[in-house]
Amino acid sequence: MFFTTRQKSKTETQPNLFDTQDTKAVPMMNSEVVLVSPELARTFLDRNVSNRNVRKGHVNSIANSMRRGEWKLSPQGIIIHSKTGRLLDGQHRLLGVVESNQTVPMFVIYVDEMDVFKVLDQGAKRSTGDIFNLDPRVADTINFCCRLMLNSFGSLSPAQAEPVINSTIGTLSQGLIDYCGTSRKGFSSSPVKAAVVTSVFFGADKEYAFSLYKNLILYDFDALPPIGKAFLRQLNTGSIDFSKSNGSKNTFARSLKLFDQKSKDATVIRISESSFNTVIRDTSKKMKELLVLEGSISADWGRNV
User: Fold this and answer.
1) What is the dihedral sign for C-alpha 282, 283, 286, 288?
2) Helix (H, G, I), strand (E, B) or coil at 259
3) Residue 128: in which H helix or E strand, if any?
4) d(CA 41, CA 51)
5) Is 217 exposed, middle or buried (0-12, 13-18, 19+ CB in 10 A)?
6) What is the model's pLDDT at position 4?
7) Checking CA distances to 139, which of 2, 25, 122, 156 falls within 20 to 30 Å?
8) In this predicted model, what pLDDT tens digit does every residue of 132-156 receive, in sequence order?
9) Backbone angles phi, psi at 240, to 5 degrees
10) Quick one: pLDDT at residue 268?
11) What is the largest CA-CA distance in the chain?
12) How far apart are CA 48 and CA 71, in angstroms?
């Protein structure tokens, strides 16, 4: 169906803005819903001129979303210059169609003015917290757990995050912020919070893990067990560095040991490169298995990522 920005509905009862404005100043736009096949996507892409550099990771994310059947028709359309056929916006979505070899519905919008190209993509991208109305401190914990299970620290689709948000992981992530919402650089980072949540999810004492986290955040040194004090000392001496290569995974693996009550009397936290990779692999596998067992995610959750 075609329509223009000047068109009025026959059933319209409210005044149309165009009744009181100079319509000559309003550029024309036509749009239609199109089933975009890989062949049609290539046709549109043939006139992709002077667009921004392609981000292959973003294309892969879109393609995987299409393969999983998560793609939904939305008002965010493919924008074409009506006179020249030049593609003004939508190259990543079209490349996703080509890569996934799927046919999906899209809005195709035809504009008369080439200058619209200058004002595209000016808005901020919606985060997981924005989409699901989550506290960002909760969302980043859930996102970390999802990416851990996916073994991919790239982009995360809403369809992947939603079942984990509604799981015990999501409940514990919210509960931790309710218990201690204070932030402190490093200590309240997503891998540390994810380690608290994961430990409790795996059966650790919730009061112990949550209290230890809070005492670290508040720098209540006297209330810390030996391993908590060791963590602070190692952080101050630089042997624990949140910024190192693989820092988030390394921090998560160390924090798992930190929040394990059986290790509370340890006076040092040591973890080798080889062992932390094993910890990450085994933990992500166990987390996914437990989420499947409780019915929060399906056994094929995260396929084609």
Assistant:
1) negative
2) coil
3) helix 128-132
4) 16
5) middle
6) 35
7) 122
8) 778 899 999 999 999 999 988 777 8
9) -110, 120
10) 86
11) 77
12) 22
